[in-house]
Amino acid sequence: MSFSNYLVILVAGIIFIYAVFKQRSKSYPPGPPSLPILGVAHLHPQVEFWRTYAEWGRRYGINGLISFHILGRRMVIINTMEDAINLLNKRSGVYSDRPFPTMAGVLMRREKSIFYISYNERFKMYRKMMQRSFNPTAAQMYWDIQDHEARILVDNITKFPDKLVEHLRRNAASVIMKIAYGYPVTRNDDHFVVTAEEHLRIGSIVGRPGKWLVDSIPLLRFLPEWFPGAGFKRQARHWSEELYMQFLEPQNWVKDQIAAGTAIPSFTSTFLRPSDGPPADAETEDLVLWAAGGLYAAGADTTVSAATTFFFQMMMNPGIQSRAQAEVDGFFETEKRLPSLHDQAALPYLGSIIKEVLRWAPPAPLGLFHCTSRADVYKDMYIPAKTTVIPNIYAMMHDESIYPDPFVFNPERHMGSNPQPDPRECAFGFGRRVCAGQNLAETTLWIQFALSLLTVNISKAVDQDGKTIEPEIAFTTAIVSHVKPFPYQITLRSEAALSLCRDFGVYMNDVSKKFHRSPENSPDLSEADFLARKQVIEAVAEWAQGTGMEWPPILYLYGVVKASAKRERDWGHLVFTDLTTMRFLLVMVFPEECGCGNYSHHDYDALAKFQADRFMSLATYLYHDENKPHWVRATYVTISNGYALDPAFLQSVDTPPNNDTGKLESIDMLLKQSGKSVPKIMRYKVLGSKDARPEVSNVWKSKNARQCAECMKTSTKDLICRLIHYCSRECQRLAWPTHKLVCKKTDKVQGLD
Prior knowledge:
This is O-methylsterigmatocystin oxidoreductase. With about 750 residues, the chain is α+β, with helices and mostly antiparallel strands.
């Protein structure tokens, strides 16, 4: 061997020794004592990992930062807010990836999952879609849904108080399913909800650290399914197929609704059939499928966790509950209405309670795991590439140096001139992986808590001897942690508030109860008129029961559908709507024929079509664009057919109307035909306390006098719009930014647009 060859070997050896020495000299963050190969597998807890990680951080860590490995899989635990901000926020370019575990990721083929996807172009597309749909401004379009479902929640709690958590789960599921798919949840055992809950259960099992040996020894994934001990592969394949179908089924339901013209605006329908472009291609459909599927997993269980903690803490702290109730009571007594999401600034103590709920028991104590995309050095500590980085949110929220007396539930820590750090900065994640639905989560909790505090009282349960039962404070162990079931008792505290909660949505005009009575108790209707309408209402109710969706009858003033109304209290024809108030059934009731021989005004088919078009035009004009009706289906009943509905009418296939947009130009004429009875359409959207809104309350005090939509004073002046009135140019100027969103029939006014 030549001298040059020896020299090459010598240099290579020196380089190798230097590399090994340098690698060994790199100092990982400290951690608990570990064993060769096993690491800390023998020490790793089986429950409430976050508590153990926090203790290890105090005992072994540098400012709480620790690291360890389990069978070669290295993890870094961040236990302080300072390190989380420095690493996950300020160095997000390094710490924005996700670990891709073999079981939950590779074997279950979850590379497209919003929770496991790498920080790549597809992830950026997900974030863009989420930001477009759920930014603070866009999220307001879902406030009606959240308000509606919160009222249902309160109603259910008062009816069945022993099923609190079940009601919270139904509420969270209904909100998410409506937002994600426009799908109405009418039963607790709804198929889509049951499958989505199964998705959460599977996700909790496969995501548990240390549960699957294949995560630590990835080579095991190459074992054939029939091999002894390889049952995990069969399970992964089964779960993968099951989870994909759980995403696909609701999306296919939305596509069917779009094809039928009955799709309710939702996250999925917006991207599958955008208003400003062609239908989605296959690639976009796949993006929407995985993004929408992740909404339920991200939003439903975490909301239930926080809401359960709220009720638990109100029970444990009656003084805090009383103070919060006094705040909402004061609002209720002053404003003479229920609080809405427009009133968040008016209830600051409630806002502090929400912050303290998220701090005291963060729904995801360990957040979602991050992963380093390349090696990094932090405070002279080496963090290799592909290291799993876990933010211990529980430890951050219970850091005594930031939150004194961290285990005490104290909303006042978030109030005053010097509040403690806002826990929402940590509770919803970090960096480029922060929760995109934070606005939805906060507003859902706010309206739930506000209406619950106003309506009910929760206290500790008592045993048979009348002694108070002291509940145990314990939590489940999963990605999303919950307070374990606890004994309690709920009592009604405000009949008035509950009554208003039950008058939500179309129920404000639901006339079903009237026809549960006898004809003699309805002096405004003759017996024949009463029984005719009762028969129609019962027929529609029987049909609706078979569809699984409610279709209550809503009473619009007679003048809306019959131009010859003589009095406002006259009963006209019946209008039925589903709970979206976007689809209508119009049943015209003709109690008798005059026998004049002139059948031109007895062409009931033509009358039904005309009144359906007329109703459609009025509703389209007064509703917001996103809430305008999709269709109105009309028919009639007469005394000659015994007021019997044709079954074919109820079973008809619904198609979108093909109304001439020019009908909107004649809207004022239609209103004049109705006399002074302006249609009472309850489902128009209010964007804020100073919003312009259609005048629909019959408040005209004198001839040509109308109520200003801004200051509510009466004036004869009529500026800008023929349906929305202002008493002065100043009121007009104040209301214009929201007016132009509410009313599409406005004239351009210089200096206002």
